[in-house]
Amino acid sequence: MRMPIWLEKRASLTPDAVAVESEQNRRITFAELRQRSRSMAAELLNMGVQPEETVACLCDSSLELIALVHSIPYTGAMLMPLNTRLTAPELLYQLQDSQSRVLIYSDSFAHIAAELKQANSMLQILSIHELSNTAAVVDTRLLHDVAADAVYTIMYTSGTTGAPKGVLQSYSNHWSSAIGSMLNLGLTEQDKWLVTVPLFHISGLSILLRSVIYGIPIVLQPKFAPEQANAAIMEQGVTIMSVVSNMLARMLEAMGEARYPQSFRCMLLGGGPAPLALLQACVERGIPVMQTYGMTETCSQFATLSPQYMLSKLGSAGKPLFQSELRIVSSGVELPTGQAGEIVVRGPNVTSGYFNRDAKDSFIDGWLHTGDIGYVDQEGFLYVLDRRKDLIISGGENVYPAEIEAVLAGHPAVLEAGVAAIADQAWGQRPVAFVVLRAGEAFAEGELLDYCRARLAKYKLPAEIYAVAELPRNAAGKLLRRELLALLPQ
Amino acid sequence: MRMPIWLEKRASLTPDAVAVESEQNRRITFAELRQRSRSMAAELLNMGVQPEETVACLCDSSLELIALVHSIPYTGAMLMPLNTRLTAPELLYQLQDSQSRVLIYSDSFAHIAAELKQANSMLQILSIHELSNTAAVVDTRLLHDVAADAVYTIMYTSGTTGAPKGVLQSYSNHWSSAIGSMLNLGLTEQDKWLVTVPLFHISGLSILLRSVIYGIPIVLQPKFAPEQANAAIMEQGVTIMSVVSNMLARMLEAMGEARYPQSFRCMLLGGGPAPLALLQACVERGIPVMQTYGMTETCSQFATLSPQYMLSKLGSAGKPLFQSELRIVSSGVELPTGQAGEIVVRGPNVTSGYFNRDAKDSFIDGWLHTGDIGYVDQEGFLYVLDRRKDLIISGGENVYPAEIEAVLAGHPAVLEAGVAAIADQAWGQRPVAFVVLRAGEAFAEGELLDYCRARLAKYKLPAEIYAVAELPRNAAGKLLRRELLALLPQ
């Protein structure tokens, strides 16, 4: 099965529609984006880039990076977007593991790119600025279509264990993700999607692809700032935004008594279940929140909870999107409704595997084993209890950090909370909690423990609670629980 | 690739949403429709229906027929909906050609079903009424998913030459058609689609499938009546309707000075280009018309013209939908922009071929040769000049009936027009025209010929023009040009 190149098709359908609104209200149309991407593709071919080879990029969010993402299909190559927060050794590992020969970098990473080049003399490096500064070309070498099952992007993820692995994301995976999301969210001529999440994560990259498939503009804000994001919704006509819960909490704090316009129709909330207090604040302000469950391996959203269930199905990630299916299994057996086990998933948006890795540990009979723990209630709503790797086992009982965090975040003095395991002689492991207090609030550990005691079984009570200035999060805003213990007093 | 059964998935996502509003405001939800379809599927299995066998139906539009359409995937069989206007010999041909062993019929066709059974004693017949009257069952024989490339429906079409052939329509074909249409039209929570076209044609059947894929209700009106259709738009919240131009003309006549509500967002117009006068009347009344080009082989819409181009691109069918591609070829060579040739198409909505037929005449390198003639302008808009089988060749010049019809329909006295070829000693063929006059208008052939003369090249002028009471149309409302000559005075 062949697919037309998405940007090529979009630019032929609606050439004059706006593709991107970036800083200082710079706007480009789909026709202009096509021209940039075609030129970049020609330049990549001039560098010797071959079909099916990996092109790495280490770039800030920018119009140039968007054009680069869309230039790749014209070349038949695969793009590996590198996380810009990684250290040089981490980057080197991913470059080598993915067999990248070409690295495109933003000027702000020129130094580290040179360092990488020094460590790996085979690496060809070029700044994205130079790549963009090529003249428009008519180049007969550019491809007209792609194979649906060809790999478009490779994204590294740590998975449940071991070294990071490159998730293969095909055109068909990305396409199906965009279609599944549209069937769930709908699509209108007024739609405009705000992107403040990193483009090197699937949360950001997927929005770029949707923009072209749907024919809607994105508003690009390279760094998340709550006031600026609120302004885009209030004044720039944004109708959809992707967030994680601490971004949303900060936006609410920043907006005060203001309200978003009626036209704002979806706050797509990923990265784990949100605390009740946050959702209640959204209900009071009339913000339609869609909570989602997804991962790099499912090319973003896999399940989504509609806003009408925000409170009645608190903690749920909703139901799997139209083309997606899930099962809850334990030791290879499908569990009945209500019982917690490993979440396994299937669908056209699910990766076929990892770059240069045997997929047999992750896939059984075509179902991807996510390593996440959850259950499905009588009405078919998915509850993700926790990432398996974060599971705390205390005295033989499973303790889910997310559950304790949600309770703590419900306390009026607490802005956000993180929970991890400490070793315990008596119980094997016990949970320990870290909280960020709201401005002006004083820390009272005893009161917080009482608050937890009223709401949690005894074996789930944190052994200790610490007040900290901030929680460790990755570039996508996801809480990094395994780094919490570094916050313990020495 | 497996796909979940669409109705099963839909009913799990939004069980309580309305699926169908039929006569007397009878409403059923997706959960209720699922129950009906599951029961019917169990009954079909009880009749001995096997996976991949053809089940024929000869049914009026009804809730029962809708449930039957959705029951098929649970059995793995294929459905062949028969055109209810066919004669017994025509029906027998299709039953035999498609190797149907089971025929489901509406009570109004009991007589003809019995006649078919008499002619073919192997045929098992059952009324859809009886099939519907089975109790709800939990049946472990019902399938949970389907292969994406399995055939869901078979529809007979006469094609360009020869006996009717059964077009194979797979789950993937129908799915891609629904997705392509959604990417073009958008999708909102308020959407509701009015169905007055026959369900045994792809125009009607495709709406049933979209309803379940999108999660939107359909309003079913088994017979088209302009007043009733207008009422559904005015009072029942319909946002989208599928029509052919003479249905639309009759609705405009019936609505007088009334206006549709703002919420009505799309009049999807198929079956050939519409006359200017009709489109102008729609512009005056603020009716957003989307003109489309499609066929049984493309599972409905292939290209669509957005309302903003209704007049500036008069006569165009727009651009191919997102996943679809077209080329204009002649003698195997792709023609440049602006030149007319055969329209060849490719995409995931395009059939893989015909039942029990070699597809090699219709497909070349994966492109379906439609037999239709058209060209693409500088901006990528498709103009379908004519169905090849209707092409008139006069003195070596190609004459397209649709062009002459459009001119005649622009005359104030003419409601609609049809043009066909008569043999001519001097020119080989010449066009002859048939017009239906508006109420109260008198026929003046000379004046009409003058009107044509001012607008058409001499070789395109009709040799004669006749006033007739109505034009021959098929059940979908498409003009049957080859039957026009029967209207000639004896």
From TrEMBL, chains A, B:
Q: What's one GO BP annotation on this UniProt entry? A: menaquinone biosynthetic process
Q: Which GO terms describe its molecular function?
A: ATP binding; o-succinylbenzoate-CoA ligase activity
The chain positions of domain AMP-dependent synthetase/ligase read 7-355
Instruction: Kindly state which reaction or reactions the protein catalyses.
Output: 2-succinylbenzoate + ATP + CoA = 2-succinylbenzoyl-CoA + AMP + diphosphate
EC numbers for this chain: 6.2.1.26
| AMP-binding enzyme C-terminal domain location | 403-478
Q: Which family does it belong to?
A: Belongs to the ATP-dependent AMP-binding enzyme family. MenE subfamily.
Explain the purpose of this protein.
Converts 2-succinylbenzoate (OSB) to 2-succinylbenzoyl-CoA (OSB-CoA).
Please report the name of this protein according to its UniProt entry.
2-succinylbenzoate--CoA ligase
Organism of origin is: Paenibacillus montaniterrae
